[in-house]
Write a structure and sequence with these properties.
Layout lengths: L6 E6 L3 H13 L2 E6 L2 H8 L6 E5 L3 H12 L7 E6 L10 E4 L4 H22 L1 E12 L4 E10 L2 E5 L9 E6 L8 E10 L4 E8 L2 H14 L9
Parallel strand pairs: 1-2, 1-3, 3-4, 4-5
Antiparallel strand pairs: 6-7, 6-9, 7-8, 8-11, 9-10, 10-11
Length: about 230
């Protein structure tokens, strides 16, 4: 995303008329646009920003190769893909398909669907940097000091001098900056690194604490408001 938290789109098309029709819709959704006229060059353009949406005007084999490379790319967060096709047939690798010729009405509906998916995906993957020292309880009864360095909808990142194994369960209380109360979380270790970093997923959070956490995350996961509903 850009510094003002607007979603970013890579628009792959040689059709100036199609671009004019859809660019207005994208801008009304507060989505910035990077235009690329060739599927062959589009893959390189992905590395120039934080692409949240790819719109591709289908050109057969070139477009298929672009999508194949996109999904093989070693990036943990993949963009939402909108494919513009001569028919309404399903396209592997595309989340939304728009049939040609594209009308403004069809484009608005399709991009509203794509926007909703992007928003959910963004909130699921975004991580908020924190630096919170906590005392964690382990399954074997040990208590250990560690630091929560980031938090998101699915879990936390931890820094620690202790050794943990994948699958270990930890529980601790967090007082998030600006939150009205502490939250109690139980997490499972998903991965470890040699330099003391650990990635964990949430296993259980009491319902009241979950509301506090979700409110805190929502407040910090704001994107630029669309010009239209």
């Amino acid at each position: 995303m850009t510094s003002d938290m607007a979603f970013e789109c890579l628009f792959v098309s040689r059709d100036a008329g199609l671009f004019r029709t859809l660019a207005r819709i994208l801008r009304n959704l507060s989505i910035t646009i990077n235009l690329c006229v060739s599927p062959e060059k589009a893959f390189d353009a992905l590395g120039q920003g934080s692409t949240d949406l790819v719109v591709i005007d289908w050109e057969g084999e070139e477009s298929s190769e672009f999508l194949r490379k996109l999904w093989m790319k070693g990036k943990w967060k993949k963009p939402t893909v909108v494919a513009i096709l001569p028919s309404e047939s399903r396209m592997p690798g595309a989340h939304v398909v728009i049939k040609k010729p594209v009308t403004a009405e069809a484009g608005e509906k399709s991009f509203r669907d794509a926007y909703s998916r992007m928003l959910i995906d963004y909130r699921r993957h975004v991580r908020h940097a924190v630096m919170l020292p906590v005392m964690a309880s382990c399954e074997d009864g040990r208590t250990t000091a560690l630091t929560v360095v980031d938090i998101g909808d699915g879990g936390v990142g931890i820094s620690t001098q202790e050794t943990f194994l994948i699958g270990d369960i930890l529980s601790f209380r967090l007082l998030l900056p600006g939150a009205r109360r502490e939250v109690l979380v139980n997490v499972r270790v998903l991965w470890t690194r040699d330099y003391g970093r650990i990635g964990c997923e949430f296993v259980r959070i009491p319902p009241v604490d979950l509301i506090v956490l979700h409110d805190w995350l929502k407040e910090r996961s704001r994107v630029k408001k669309p010009l239209v509903e």
